Amino acid sequence: MNRLSIRQTLLLFALILVLILGSVIGALAYTRARTIVSESQRGVIADTINRIDINLNTRVRYINQTIQDAAQPVRLPAGGWSGAAAMALRLEVQGMLEEVGLPSSVYILSVDGAPPSEMLEDVRSAPEKIFWADLRVGLAREGDTLQVYRGLLSEEGTLAAILAVEFQPAIFNNFILANQNILPYQYTFLLDREDALICSGKYVEEGMKAEITAAFRSGRQKFFFSWNGREYYACGRYNGLTGWRTFSAIAVDDLFPGSETLRSYISLVVAVAMTLMVLFILILYRSITRPLKQLADAMKTAQGGNFAVRLPPGQEDEIGYLSHTFNEMVDRIDLLVNEVYQRELAQKTAEMEALQAQINPHFLYNTLDAINWMLIERDAWDISDIVVALGNLMQYTMNTRTATVPLHLEYAYIEDYLRIQKCRLTHRLEYSLLLDESLRELEVPKLILQPLVENAIRHGVESRSDGGRVEICSRREGDWAQLRVRDNGPGISESQRRQLLDPDGAPSGSTGIGVRNVERRLKLYFGSRCRFEIRSAPDQGTEILISIAASTEREEEDHRENSDH
To answer: Which residue, 244, 275, 306, sits at the end of a domain?
Structure first.
């Protein structure tokens, strides 16, 4: 991608900045508004539950007090109830309840008349206590009802009968429907002690009811839960008079039904603000970048060799100062080019050519050859071997006709290099070279082993007071040719190993540069047919493994032709 101009950079930066700021501000505003509304709605739900429970307590207390007042003065003679007395008591209780909007069915049950066993057992345990039963089949066998009952005593204080009042569960819907703050999608319902549904303002599925009651029984009164792939918020309250529980639940998305409208409004406001901001930035940066573009165009003209270009005097600011400085610079460059630079350049070129002629590679090689014969005449054979090795190294490196060589020539070069290092380090350096004969003609980039061997000597041998050993070996493993350079030095850490293999990391000295140079040339030549590995650990030495896929003769020929070109 071409480098962006300063105008494009400023525009792109402004657009990105405005987009980020607008998006962040819009998202924060929407999130904050949604949070505030959702918290407020959760408070409404909790308040709804509290008011329903208060209303329920008021009605329950009135029912209890009505039954208590009606039963308190009843002290009938032993021998049972007369029809007239029972009828009078029933009508009295029923009338008192209907006055407050609680239609009911009132029964006087003789103890000897086989009343329901659960009812008889409760009354016998506490004759003067008022019991609220869970949802059960009514005494008239016409469906489930809610029963409230207590014992009626004779003058001797013995249990004579049972006063029972039955209510249809539907009457308790008024406690829910009468609440004006219930949200459109809110579930509100009343359960008895056995989790049976007494009444509800909206149909509640059994699975949802089970989730809510399980969470409530675990000790949570306000909680979130998931049902059918949606997130819900629920709260519940326990009624101490009846043992019933009131619950209310709503989907989290429904806590704020107008969220989409608010989101659209905020998006519109942010879009308008972003547009105005972009227009303002465009006007501002245009006034700044226009003179900068003129300066850039003038510099390109001067770069092409036309030093007659000049900028008109600008305003008295930093950009005007740049224009004035540019004009002065062009004047000076024009003077240097026309009067001084050409003469100096010609003289420097002549001096460089003379210097290059003096250090001609052939001249250096011939000089080493003459030194070698002088050493032979003086029987200094050991020094002669070093000079010959050095000459071979120079001849190998100065041959630029081809970028690749057979592997056996690379080995010969490394052997000369090691001979020179052996002369320098003497007994501190031990080395071995092992060449697989089947890989002699394998074409490899020139000088791929020398940087690795140099690193092995520098960091694996010289760092040890007692010296070390360097091993260079090659062998064929299936379809792969493997080259190894191994030393028994102190090794490197895992972070150093990763840094050496990281193409984007900063190289650590000549070691990193040499290793990366080898790896890069191998990848350029072989591509995916080559692997480069470094295996090392502290105090375990270092091994560099180069794996090259075995190529056909045609592929190697193609690589050689490409390298020659």
So the answer is: 275
